[in-house]
Amino acid sequence: MNPSRAFVLLKPDCSGTDRRAAVDAAVAAEGLVVACRHPVSLTPADVRFLWSEYTEDGHVLMHAFLGRYLCTAPSEVLLLRGPDAFAAARRIKRAIRSRYANGPFANLIHAAEHPGELARQANHLLGHCPECAAPFVSSEPLTSPPRPAGRDFRGETDLPALVESLWPALQSVDPSAPVPYCLDRSPVAAVYLGADRAHTLDSAVTALWSALPGITLAHAVLLTLYAGRVGGCPVAVGSHEAVSRSHRVLQAHGITTCGVGPAPS
Ligand SMILES: [Zn+2]
């Protein structure tokens, strides 16, 4: 394997904390060296450029949460050098997240998943000094294809206020299960939602919000994130008819990790 370069981005919940030591240890364990470190204060424009799979109108929830997560405190970018640095950086990301992450908005560290993404993001984040000035190149497409989109909730909801109200719960090490939404007065059956990696926060929340008439957006976000974090949970209870109807709407939105069962006791 050739010596090569990659980067990791230490997010605000890592960059100013003693978790940096765990990252340094993981870098050393992979046989890589930190060639360069730069503090970086990400702006919403940076976030849009770095995660181009999330669009302006189709991922308004993701952008609202990422803005709160990444744009309110400094991050740090580390240029790494060593054998097979791209794959090693991904392993470092997985190792740190598996130990410390508390969901998608408390996951400490980013590394590119594709060589094209690595080139685009590294060229945006690095180049602040001679050590990291050499551009990254990739024969793969530099932009990531858009991911499944959701409804544009901006016209009807104050999204920054929504994010602030949910933020403490999303940072919790051991979050409590949100109560399932009540579809009617006969809670004998339940709709279950599992983690669905084919969907985004926006597409999954939009599906849930459409399938559970009357649910608040905040409740739909909490249920979606909790299902993603623990692998699955009941999201609504009601009569067999109401539960079947909601299940069909979820399926019509392309959600495959959902099902119907008895209400939790
Ligand atoms: Zn540098």
TrEMBL record:
Gene3D superfamilies for the chain: Nucleoside diphosphate kinase-like domain
InterPro entries: NDK-like_dom_sf
Origin: domain of life: Bacteria
Annotated family: Belongs to the NDK family.
Name of the protein described by the UniProt record: Nucleoside diphosphate kinase
